[in-house]
Design goal:
The structure holds two protein chains of two kinds. Chain A is about 35% helix and about 20% strand. Chain A is of the alpha/beta class. Chain A has two domains: about 190 residues, Rossmann fold; about 130 residues, Rossmann fold (3-Layer(aba) Sandwich). In chain A, the strands form three sheets. A seven-stranded mixed beta sheet of chain A has the order 3-2-4-5-7-6-12, with helices on both faces. Chain A has a five-stranded mixed beta sheet with strand order 9-11-10-13-14, with helices on both faces. In chain A, helix 1 runs parallel beside helix 7, helix 3 packs parallel to helix 4 and helix 9 crosses helix 10. Chain B is of the alpha/beta class. Chain B has twelve helices and eight strands. In chain B, helix 1 packs antiparallel against helix 11, helix 2 packs parallel to helix 3 and helix 4 packs across helix 12. Classes of the chains: A alpha/beta, B alpha/beta. The interface between A and B is large, with 45 and 46 residues.
């Protein structure tokens, strides 16, 4: 039987559709998620299937509609709210980190907020400083939010269904470059086999996307694709890289991370978020605390430097971890 | 509009209950904090924002609410929660930070949650207004006749969340009532210095929403306006805005020196004590004696004392419990 291939965007919308069929408490809110199908295609087809009562286009009022999602969730609904670009979190961050994330704790466990806040991340297509960020490190830092970052269509569907069924607030970050959009630079890894039936992928379970023994790359999202491309190049040079796709930062699969480091003794974190005070630092700290003796070389980090993302193509390409930069970082790592 | 004796007495009792609770909490708050004020000391550490003087607003609005009508409140939540019908023991225990409190000590005075009463509050100005919109959205989706109410202050009426919430509620025609408790000051900044319109009731027009201003010290005026707004919402008529002009008899927070207040204004405000106003109205009807007033006061004093004893006797949560309840499941 031929495999069923879907884009990541279609996989996400299929996940949402299947959950909406199964559970009438699930509904979707956000800007342009209805008639437009989401500007990155994450909600394509939902309005036709479920109607405007359950697929609601909102005004440009992120504090209002994200806060409304919180309120509806506390009343037993299971809202999926889209924040169009993660970069826009600033206008609504209070509702995200002071309310969505904390109401369960502040109420002593008595109130649940079973809400999914999904959002588009990432750059590489010249959208500049206010439309290209990743920022998952910032949200992972605040207690109370589960942080989910799929890299493939298969993972995207399973993680979205899990997110919807989870009783905790989940932030779900989909990279624009992995969605398989017709108007973006083509990405072969943005399309992949996806089972038709609903399935879940547990949080806190990283996925070794490529096994290897010479070095470990820890990464998420689009950087998984670039790391796999780099690994293919390096294999031709006799360097075998293990690529670990973390999939969720909160909860974090420490076991898989440490097992990999203990096997390869060399680790590179590839992170499209800003370098300082984020995911890459967190992973290196974890490894230093719990696997220092297993390292044959200091851990390496390849991340976007601490600069706003520039517009001009040569500038943006300079700051974003490229396949070549990843490959070179691994060569440097194994040479030490 | 004439209300039954039963309704009037119920309003009176609610207001006395709130006042008694607040005044007793004020006394407890200062335990351990003298002679030199140390906010971290005593059985009730942290900030304290008390509702004395504003009782008519909570009582007049909540009289129309059922336990399952959602209410969101503010950093000054006690009046609303008491008027909603909370168990004073669990509420007092939470204020003391005890394990038997509403939130097992995790929330405290400003973060009181009671899901049995669909009540939540928080210390971010305007933060709860969108939650009431969301609760109303859930209600409408389910086709229920419940109503959500959001209480907030004159200061909150200038934050983005207020404007976004009113617009959303109107666009989606949601069963929510927005109640601005205009006590004339946002901490120290008078409304005249912060708000472009003279009355927030004028802002209803900006969102195509019925809006009224009422005398917030007159519980019957509040009751009447709230009745209309809540019934409108229950029948599917959409949202409303009520601005209740009221007075805060105590500072913004306990310990507030209130140097920003014009001289003599507090004394003027205290001439309009909502409890006295209703008491006089009841007496004028011949439905009320000083003995009855005293009996009600004694009853509430006893209830509050029982709550206080419960709170004091209750254990603190285990220190390691600080790590619990981040997630439902990890």
């Amino acid at each position: 039987m031929a495999e069923r291939l879907l884009t990541t965007a279609k996989a996400i919308s299929e996940a949402i559709a299947q959950e909406m069929e199964r559970d009438d408490r699930v509904f979707v809110m956000g800007e342009d998620i209805g008639a437009y199908g989401g500007i990155f295609g994450a909600t394509q087809g939902l309005l036709e299937k479920f109607g405007p009562e359950r697929v609601m286009d909102t005004p440009i009022s992120e504090t209002g509609f994200i806060g409304a999602g919180v309120g509806a969730a506390t009343e037993g609904m299971r809202p999926i709210v889209e924040l169009m670009f993660v970069d826009f979190f600033g206008v609504a961050m209070d509702q995200i980190y002071n309310h969505m994330a904390k109401i369960h704790y502040m109420s002593g466990g008595n109130v649940k907020v079973p809400m999914v806040l999904m959002t588009a991340i990432g750059g590489g297509y010249s959208d500049a400083a206010q439309h290209s960020q990743c920022l998952y490190g910032l949200f992972a830092h605040v207690p109370g939010l589960k942080i989910v970052i799929p890299s493939s269509p298969y993972d995207a569907k399973g993680l979205m269904i899990q997110a919807i069924r989870d009783d905790d607030p989940v932030m779900y970050f989909f990279h624009k470059g992995i969605m398989g959009l017709g108007w973006m630079t083509p990405n072969p890894r943005a399309t992949g086999p996806v089972p038709e039936e609903p399935y879940t992928i547990p949080f806190g379970k990283a996925d070794v996307k490529r096994e290897g023994s010479d070095a470990t790359i820890l990464t998420v999202s689009l950087m998984v694709h670039r790391s796999l491309d780099a690994a293919e190049k390096l294999a031709q040079e006799g360097i075998n890289v293990e690529v670990v796709d973390l999939r969720t930062l909160v909860p974090l699969d420490k076991e898989t991370i440490l097992d990999s480091v203990k096997k390869t003794h060399r680790v590179l974190v590839v992170d499209e978020d800003y370098k300082s005070f984020g995911m890459s630092g967190e992973l290196v700290a974890l490894i230093a605390e719990e696997a220092l003796d297993y390292l044959d070389a200091p851990p390496k980090r390849l991340a976007v430097p601490d600069v706003p993302i520039p517009y001009s193509r040569p500038l943006e390409q300079y700051i974003s971890p490229s396949v070549d930069a990843i490959a070179q970082a691994v060569r440097d790592l194994v040479a030490e | 509009m004439s209300l039954s004796q039963e309704t009037l007495l119920s309003l009176y009792e609610t207001m006395v209950k709130i006042r008694t609770f607040e005044e007793r909490v004020a006394e407890i708050y200062y335990e351990g904090k003298t002679p030199v004020f140390d906010i971290a000391a005593g059985p009730v550490p942290g900030e304290m924002h008390l509702y004395s003087g504003q009782e008519a607003v909570a009582a007049g609005v909540c009289a129309h609410l059922r336990p399952d009508d959602p209410v969101t409140s503010t950093h000054r939540p006690h009046g609303h929660l008491i008027a909603k019908g909370v168990d004073l023991k669990a509420m007092m225990a939470e204020i003391f930070g005890k394990d038997t409190g509403l939130c097992h000590g995790k929330g405290g005075h400003m973060h009181l949650f009671d899901p049995t009463l669909h009540f939540g509050c928080g210390g971010i100005v305007g933060g709860g207004i969108p939650h009431a919109v969301g609760a109303a959205l859930a209600i409408k989706k389910r086709g229920e006749d419940r109503v959500a109410v959001s209480f907030f202050g004159d200061g909150a009426a200038n934050i983005g969340a207020f404007h976004e919430s009113l617009n959303l509620a109107a666009v989606w025609k949601l069963p929510v009532v927005f109640v601005v408790e205009d006590n004339l000051y946002a901490i120290s900044v008078p409304k005249s210095a912060s708000t472009a319109v003279r009355s927030n009731a004028e802002r209803g027009a900006a969102y195509d929403m019925p809006a009224v201003q009422v005398d917030g010290q007159d519980v019957l005026a509040v009751y009447e306006a709230a009745k209309e707004a809540i019934e409108r919402a229950r029948k599917g008529g959409g949202p409303s805005l009520i601005e209740a002009v009221c007075y805060r008899f105590r500072g913004h927070f306990e310990g507030d020196p209130e140097l920003y207040l014009p001289k003599g204004i507090k004394e003027q405000w205290k001439q309009r004590d909502p409890i006295t106003i209703l008491g006089n109205q009841l007496k004028a009807q011949g439905w009320f004696s000083d003995e009855q007033a005293q009996a009600i006061q004694d009853k509430m004093t006893a209830l509050v004392a029982e709550a206080e004893a419960f709170a004091r006797q209750s254990p603190y949560p285990a220190p390691e419990d600080a790590l619990k309840h981040v997630f439902v499941n990890v």
